[in-house]
């Protein structure tokens, strides 16, 4: 591009700042003015919808209610119309009624006139309707195009504090939530209570800055101009909007009026801020870069709380905007804003200085060389760059970071930029080369392609020729040495050497074939006048060549990616499909090379964006073929392949050569999902080898670690490219089969301790199961399906668990036979799942069949058979066969106590089952004793958060409730509900049962509204988890309906007295619990038999437990689980399901 016609970047990318005054209900005037500006700007730009301020302004600052509006427009990214509606509702709610008419109490303390709780509730409602949560941080770490800050005043020091939605270098920002920030900036003195953030208290920001224009100026300097702090040359448009000129009134002599009116008016007075600011910015005002809009007539009599004068505010603002003078000024403001093409980068200060230097150079050339560009002038410094300037290049903040490092006074000798292949390293280096030549015409710029040794050698020969040094018949090593010596001379001029694609570490280290003594690093020149910049995909190379000056190129943000797409498409009409364009960019993960390739395909085939997205979202094979399409790119080497799917093949080959285990991990990860891959699944043994393999993949930016290194995320396009690479080096089917084997062997143990591990592993297990045909029957497939089914059962996803168990059982029976222990364990798991699903007939039949198989093969005197018997007792109990359940469970408990002791999991399950049997029989005393013993053991060995401990807790609560010990029962249910939600998740079926019991407890204690709320929550959860046709769902909805429908007088009267309600319930239960009798509205429990040998045996066994067994627990359980997992793998057996017992 000709320098003479290059536009001033200030006109296209200069700062656009918005300052919003405070003013209570008069803030509506601010919004009406902004709406008029945004509407005209949208028409000027041809937008179909009204633009949002967050899409136009780089920084929005506000104070008091202006700060609240700033949060709504900037942080919540609301539209103008949506903000007007929400703000109107807020002021109606907040200023509708005073709580204190007198501003002081009898002690002389100032009292707030309005309810701060209403203000908080109204703000929370606005936040939630905008799609956020009140507890979300104002600065949540997410990248947003628009920065927002609000002013508040520290109560103790009266110093203005800025609460920001973004970080600022060398500035501490309070970690305030959105709601806290909104309260802190709008808590006007005398109107609301002060706001609290952490241990600090704040009042309305208008106390010291009702017009925050100077605060906006200082904040912009903190962000974009930290050196000289002169922000004026960087500002394109500075818009300040007021809330109407205040009425000039004298100070009241009356103390009450002084405190209620004058003091507040003084605290929120804009003072002379506007006059001071306009005087300092007078030049920018003449250049039409600063605008102040503030209704001057009509709002003087509107008090900041008089929400009923909304009509007057709108009318006065309308008249102001339609005045001829204001029309012209608004038109000027709109034309200024219309020229803004994108958000302003943090290095815009450097961009402007470069522009000024370029303008000075052009003027200098006109005066001295008749306009001859030094790039073309004879005798100019050496310029060896193989590519033309990329006219489609999109500026990135990273380029400014590189330039600051290169052109600082203490510049480093060598800088490395690294990142994923295709992320734009070469294009950044190319733009840097051209910008360097523009800024420093006397600078030599040389480019070395490190694709291979031949390309590098040819580049050295060309450099030596242009520098006029050496002989062309000199051997290759001498050419490198000669260039090095020439550039290293103290008298050499300024130079920049760019080494592109330095990916192969062997070229730079010792032992390179074309270098007789050492690697290429020894040929790099060193000089105070020169700098070396190299690009690489490998972090290892970057660390080797520039360990102290490494700059990583991050993923491109959406706005920059959209600009790359716009610059690359011939037909700009495609961009009218804004939703489709953003979907395309998300699919391509904002990777510049992939975006350029997609645009090339669309241009060449004259298709549209939506069609390309459909192809990309199609079958995996179609997506790989699409990303493998060759395309022309003038900014890339002819010897390299351009398509995204093949651009990483060189890196894959290098990984396979240097670390085969890392290549195996790469192949394995192509067969599972790309995100959240547990490192324990990798086909590498745990230890240093695994760490090395992960390190190699991370060094190429193919994977990123998370959760303290236990999870891996693979780049989506790399995931696709790896599949393509796998087809060229090996059979994908071989790796799919191997991946199934690896996942089956490495899958985390399916218990509650390892819940987070196996939850992350389940999606990957399902993926490898999908990749292998169903008709392939292997032991690994049966084992993996059984384990995945166990995980589903632990999460309460019983239908999915049933499918897994049926399929795995079929495979196991074909491979090993119906009587094999592996098949029997799978069938036992299936029966246990049917028990949880209330399919008790199926459950009992399978359990009895399995028990019969055990009897025929090895007898019943073994642990596997006893475990089946223990689970069968639960099915008997749930089906109503209490006698059979008691007899069978008695044998199980005694056998486990004798063989394994009370601390065994099998013993605990058996005691728990017997507790439930006693409870169902009405033997509450025996049930309570056993429940207390089992709960004691479980707390010691399993911990409070184990599902079995939680089940034992709620079982004891059942007994207390049946004994009418309601307070004790409620405390245990609440504890079990809280722990169950945390451990099992909020949608686990056990949660619905606890909610149901708590609802009845609230009902029986006369808390009817709470009971209805709990029963409604239980009903909705049942419908979502169990389905609307499940009997428990029907039961809870019927109960809810009976509680909420109108009842006759006798029913309502009786329900108000807990004694009468209790009597009626106990009468109904008498036929089910013969040990309970009712006497005159009260009840007693018939005396239990004093001698129960089983209970005494359990109590004695628990009492005789060794002291070491009483030590807490999770470590013990984890050790046992790990040992069981190892033993099961060694024997090839499938582990048992460890789902918590189902209670009714």
Describe this structure in words.
This protein is α/β, with parallel strands linked by helices and 1144 residues long. The chain folds into 6 domains: 12-47 and 57-338, Cytosolic phospholipase A2 catalytic domain (3-Layer(aba) Sandwich); 379-552, Rossmann fold (3-Layer(aba) Sandwich), CATH 3.40.50.300; 576-626, no CATH class; 641-730, Arc Repressor Mutant, subunit A (Orthogonal Bundle), CATH 1.10.10; 739-899 and 1113-1139, Serine Threonine Protein Phosphatase 5, Tetratricopeptide repeat; 941-1096 and 1098-1102, Serine Threonine Protein Phosphatase 5, Tetratricopeptide repeat (Alpha Horseshoe), CATH 1.25.40. It is built from 49 helices and 19 strands. Strand 5 (195-197) and strand 6 form a beta hairpin.
- The Rg value, from CA coordinates, equals 38 Å
Q: Helix/strand/pairing class, anyone? A: alpha/beta
The CA-CA distance between the termini, in Å, is: 79 Å
Biggest pleated-sheet summary: 8 strands, mixed
CATH top level label of the largest domain: Alpha Beta
CATH-scheme architecture of the largest domain = 3-Layer(aba) Sandwich
Strand-residue fraction?
5-15%
Low-confidence stretches: 1-5, 255-260, 262-271, 370-379, 512-517, 1067-1090, 1107-1144
Average pLDDT rating: 79
CATH-defined topology of the largest domain: Cytosolic phospholipase A2 catalytic domain
Give me the count of strands.
Answer: 19
Roughly what percent helix? Answer: 55-70%
Number of domains: 6
The named CATH superfamily of the largest domain:
Cytosolic phospholipase A2 catalytic domain
**Number of continuous helical runs:** 49
Overall form: flat
Active site: 64 (nucleophile), 204 (proton acceptor)
Motif (DGA/G): 204-206
Organism: Penicillium daleae
Biased composition (Basic and acidic residues): 1112-1130
